[in-house]
Design goal:
Layout lengths: L4 H14 L5 H29 L1 H9 L1 H7 L10 E5 L4 E6 L8 H4 L4 H4 L1 H9 L1 H7 L9 E6 L5 E5 L11 H7 L2 H5 L12
The structure holds fe (iii) ion (FE).
The site of fe (iii) ion has 6 residues, from loops.
């Protein structure tokens, strides 16, 4: 009997598909929605609020679990949150070297690459190289900090607010915030496309 939950899920899925009970394309669509759309929207709202409400941002950096709890986004796998802020001098990157710990209530389901051996090992050994593969070339003067998630602590990156967004509302700002930026493998671009 396979003990790995991923194997058991795969076996269940195969059985359901074989019996004609689920459509694999529909399953993929649901997973995709949780990975990209539904899940990370909560995190994006937290980020947008931090950008527009300085007092909230300070609370978020001091005690992320309490501040995120104010917005109602706590839950399983998000009980002990830490938010790390990107600045001109510091870029933060989140990984789970041991397995795939991830802040579900604010980011949804982890992407496949987050769970891969390659990302988990290389994010620590060569974070700049990994970021380059994501298309992010950091200036040598920028310090890269890598945060290793555990079952106890889950990290969320507070990305830098893109230039030229002063006129946007919190809702409009939230639309700019991506999952990848909150993991730390991307920098957010201004609405015009300039980063
Ligand atoms: Fe883990």
């Amino acid at each position: 009997m396979p003990s790995d939950p991923a194997l058991r899920v795969k076996a269940l899925e195969s059985l359901l598909v074989e019996k004609g009970l689920v459509d694999p394309a529909a399953l993929d669509a649901i997973i995709d929605a949780y990975e990209h759309k539904i899940g990370p929207r909560n995190g994006a709202k937290v980020v947008a609020r931090a950008w527009t409400d300085e007092a909230f941002k300070q609370r978020l950096l001091q005690d992320a679990s309490a501040a995120i709890g104010e917005m109602g986004f706590l839950g399983r796998q998000g009980e002990h949150m830490v938010v790390v802020e990107n600045t001109e001098q510091v870029h933060n990157l989140v990984v789970c070297t041991l397995c795939s710990c991830y802040p579900w209530p604010v980011l949804g389901l982890p992407p496949v690459w987050y769970k891969s051996d390659a990302y988990r090992s290389r994010a620590v050994i060569d974070p700049r190289g990994v970021l380059r593969e994501f298309g992010l070339e950091l200036d040598a003067a920028v310090e890269v900090r890598v945060w290793d998630s555990t079952a106890e602590i889950r990290y969320l990156v507070l990305p830098q607010r893109p230039a030229g967004t002063e006129h946007l509302s919190a809702d409009e700002l939230a639309d700019l915030v991506t999952r990848d930026a909150m993991i730390g493998v991307q920098r957010l671009a201004a609405p015009g496309g300039r980063s």
